[in-house]
Amino acid sequence: MGPIGAAFGISTDLISATDNPCPTCRILYLVRIETASSNMSSQNSHSSEGSFFAQVNFMFDRAAAYTNHPKGLLSQIKNCNSVYHVSFPLVRDNGDIQVVSAYRAEHSHHMQPTKGGIRYAPTVNADEVMALAALMTYKCAVVDVPFGGAKGGVTIDRRLYSEAELERVTRRFTFELAKKNFIGPGVDVPAPDYGTSAREMTWILDTYTTVTDNPLDALASVTGKPVGQGGVRGRVEATGKGVYFGIREACDIEEDMKKLSLNKGVEGKTVIIQGLGNVGYHAALFLEQAGARLVGLAEYEGGIYNADGLKLEDVVRHRRETGSILNFPGANNVADTVKTLELACDILVPAALEAQIRMDNVDCIQARIIAEAANGPVTAAAADSLRDRGVMVIPDTYLNAGGVTVSYFEWLRNLSHVRHGRMSRRFEARNASRILQAVQNLVGQSFNKEQLQSIEADLAFGASEADLVASGLEDTMVGAYHEIHEKARYHAVDLRTGAFISAIEKIALGYERLGIFP
Ligand code: GLU
Q1: Residue 152 CB–ligand 1 contact under 6 Å
Q2: Within 10 Å of residue 514's Cβ, how many Cβ atoms?
Q3: Which among 108, 129, 404, 469 is the best mutation to test ligand 1's pocket, defined by most ligand atoms within 8 Å of the CB?
Q4: Digit-coded pLDDT (tens) for 350-404
Q5: What is the CA radius of gyration of the chain?
Q6: With a 6 A CB cut-off, is 117 part of the ligand 1 pocket?
Q7: Helix, strand, coil percentages in the chain from 3-state DSSP, rounded to 5
Q8: SS3 348
């Protein structure tokens, strides 16, 4: 029970709070949300196929049928523990007052803190944050990151607000979260998500540091911060790089590629990416570096397609100069941006928002592999239809877990108050030099200057923070792929169900070992 719930004698922390606009004479209205999913479903963004949270729960139920855990325990794992809804006033730059709606859902406290991003988007509502928080729970379990799932959001289109307004929104929301104990290094740790970035995380950190009575660990209250403000090297590209590692692992299994009539490996595969934000951009970058051919890109202003290939950096430069990806030299424009997803390619990477591939467009999708870089970009029914057509979906609960994995490394760094590798780097470098020297002594021959230089560059160095983060990320994504792949193979199900089974088993084991309070 949260502190406000306790004060009002409400035996739950499922609380919705609506504030009087005047901060000094605020009256907090507390509403118990009995069954959050049913109450909220009318607000969902893809109601024709069921609310987003209902879809996540549908996928959960399907996977749960392959496990032997008690019904009650499965229901506890599936339900969203806490949802906080707050409205607060924003003074716009022109002096107008606007009421802003914001949410934080903590889906599961089987591990603490809870963890998940904060998004700024007009689509944000209670159903969406509950669904996304649930996906965070399963995602963390799939990649063995020791957090429960959470997600927050502010219902605004960030493009319509000045930087100063966004700062006021972020600071006020952080303050509201702190008041209700919905943020803290051991409680609930936000991170960037759609529409937010390191900039917002710095405002969150600064506000939390101001109000907390535990400033020592305040840096660990939020991740995705800039390096220099407690951020970890490698966090910015982490989700996109994780997406690349996941696709690489999938493409490296020859047997699976044969079933898709594709060759083994990423090299030479054609790719369409939806969303040139942080995740989409970095996924595109690493795929391009690995020899994949980027043929299509979709952004909110429209799409572009060139079967001969698009150079990512050239498109980014073009967009910077013209304000749009459209009219890129040599490419065809796609006026209706969602239609870009329907063009020919081997791998389609939706890296924007949820419900982009639905029953009304799934039959037009030509890709052989859908790599879910966003959260929930393929609806449950559309995923079934793709599976029936033999299309591989690499599920979000695994594929975009690179972000939270590196957030975990950032959180560890913040709690230990030391940069990863700081104490071992020189020691390792010196050890490597000693080994080189020992090898020369053993063979009675010295390397010449050029040989030594190249060997030292390759071997005689200690791991930096960036090296360690990259290594931890790769190890996590490779290990988790083979785990979900094995679950899927064993139960003869798709990868998404395999990922859910893996997550459910780990979470259930945690509950069984810990017991249930009281
Ligand atoms: N928003 C990201 C996600 O959906 C990152 C979450 C985090 O790092 O906590 O996975």
Answers
A1: no
A2: 10
A3: 404
A4: 999 899 999 999 999 999 999 999 999 999 999 999 999 999 999 999 999 999 9
A5: 24
A6: yes
A7: 50, 15, 35
A8: strand
